Amino acid sequence: MTRWNSTVIASAFLVSVLCLPGTEAGGETWDPLLPDVRIWRGEVRISRTGSAHEKWDKSHRGKTNTYFMNRTVTDTLVIKACGQSGALYVLEAKRSLSDITESENYWQNTRELCDVPGSRRPKRISPGDSRRISIRTAVTPYTGEGTGAERDRSWVALEILPLKNYALSAGNNGVAGRDEDNIESYRRVCADKTTRMEAHIRTGAPGEPPRVESSGSEEGEGTVVQWLTAPPTDIPLATNSRGSVQGNTILEIDHLVGEIKSGRDGGYEEVTKASWEFTARNPCPEVFNEFLLLVAIGEAYADRPLREFAEDLEDYERKVNWKVYENRYGTPPPKDFGKDGEGNVGFSMWVHDNCQLGGRVRYEKEQLEECSVLVIAKAAVRHEMEHVSQCKGNLKKFRSRTIEARGQSEVSAYSLESGILLNWLTDYCKDVGLDLAGARGRLQRLKAKKAGWK
Ligand SMILES: [Zn+2]
Q: Do 42 and 94 have their domain in common?
């Protein structure tokens, strides 16, 4: 049996969300004495920037000895997330990292005294031996196998604390690869030979052991090349902070996360800053709307004449749909209602023939992605679990596909589901102008029509 997907129904019926007094954006704040059940949605941005520029020249009396090194780091993380106070659902995460270092050291002797075969006097050759070492390293995000999606390695925890305070923790457990090219050139003037040594390090899959491949000989002239594989490394970027909630907004710009200062000129310095902005929406109107829709569906299933006049189960569901519209909006549905699958059954969750619940994981994930109020999903799952217990309790009746059995089973499930929402509304939405007493009366009348199943 399929659950009526009330979200589908709500959109198919083109409901406009109720406008309740005092719920306009920014117009009110959450009662600080109540647990915060607002839905927060926003973005955290962390950026780390660093640089180093070193240069010296120790050349002296014809000997050359110079060095330079440049390093530039840009590392940014943007996470979009939503949800209720606590661990938010990460909708999107993007990390871009670039850490490039280039250095070169050059050394050259003034002269060499070289032996000349057959001569007792060595020959003087200027300039002498030289050595040049160039190193370039690049640290970039590693996206190879086994690293998982960026979203799964990111988190945002936004805890709304008493007295309008909050604690935020957000970050990303990034995986970085480090490529290094190390090239050394050694020139010996007496032998008139140049040896070139290359060492290249590339990032391999996590757990892959380093490997070495060589070619050439380290003796004499020629080039020796080594290739090494190194495992990727973790490179977390995160922020932790506290602050105060301003109405429905949490805002922080350029919060200083950390700093590296260098003691010397041109040494490596780094600054990490974070900014975030979240806005909250009051969940009361949408939970109340959901309650009104669920109760309208329950009432339609409880309607005696509908069951009697329906030709078959399909016709019954059609008539129920029609009645739901009337119950919810107080007018009959428009003429073309029911075409294009309007008000049709959604296949979000279902109970298998073996009485197991299907579709739950996907449904709950969808609800998180839509940043919906958690209690709505919780109640919907409870509704389905009621069908599961109906199935287990009386398999024959549950699978009979009779109008009577369908009506009874849904009245029970919708009473239960809307009751969960009403209790939640009673806990959190007492003073926002909702007619909760009227809602309670309506639910009690629906419950009184339950039959066949508890
Ligand atoms: Zn149902």
A: yes
CA of 3 to the centre of ligand 1 (A): 4
Residues 250 and 342 both lie in one domain? no
pLDDT in tens, 329-346: 999 988 878 765 544 445
Residues 259 and 316 in one domain: no
Quote the ligand 1 centre to 285 CA distance (angstroms).
Answer: 23
269-273: long-range contacts (C-beta < 8 A, 24 or more apart)? 269/50, 269/51, 269/52, 270/48, 270/49, 270/50, 270/73, 271/48, 271/49, 271/50, 272/46, 272/47, 272/48, 272/237, 272/239, 273/46, 273/47
Whether 12 is covered by a domain: the verdict is no
| Residues 160 and 270 placed together within one structural domain of the fold | yes
Q: How far is the CA of 374 from the centre of ligand 1 (A)?
A: 19
pTM of the model: 0.84
Q: Collect the ranges in the chain with pLDDT lower than 50.
A: 1-27, 342-345
Asked whether residue 277 falls in the same domain as residue 287, the answer is no
Residues 134 and 249 in one domain: yes
Query: How far does residue 443's CA lie from ligand 1's centre (Å)?
Result: 16
**How far apart are the CA of 434 and the centre of ligand 1, in A?**
26
